Amino acid sequence: MLTSVDTDLIRVLGDPLRLRIVTLLARETLCTTHLVEETGAKQTNLSNHLKVLREAGVVETEPCGRFTYYRLKPDVIETLAGQFADLAATARLNADAKRACP
Q: CB of 53 within 8 A of CB of 12?
């Protein structure tokens, strides 16, 4: 049973704007222009966050003419959710375990 969670991925998704981007991309594939409209973020700021999400493997890109579309990779989110589920299961199994103080 897994008892740890991917802390790097949590850090990536812990940023409010990146989490908003992921939430939007869960609903549909969007280009940068759409994401700027939806989030109100400046294009350069948004591009930096998208780079972090790409490097973490959370999103993938699809070039389309002069635009780049972004798509959420659901397997990454499912893996993280599974890690949290395993952590919760471990906590349930060990709910009565208590280490004695010295």
A: yes
Strands laid side by side in the 30-31 sheet: 30-31, 67-72, 59-64
- DSSP state string for 31-85: EHHHHHHHH---HHHHHHHHHHHHHTTSEEEEEETTEEEEEE-HHHHHHHHHHHH
How many other C-beta atoms are found inside a 10 Å radius of the C-beta of residue 21? 26
CA distance 87 to 102: 27
Matching residue, tokens 């280490």: 99
Structure tokens at 59: 């999103």
33-84, pLDDT tens digit by residue? 999 999 999 999 999 999 999 999 999 999 999 999 999 999 999 999 999 9
C-alpha to C-alpha distance for 53 and 65, rounded to whole angstroms:
22
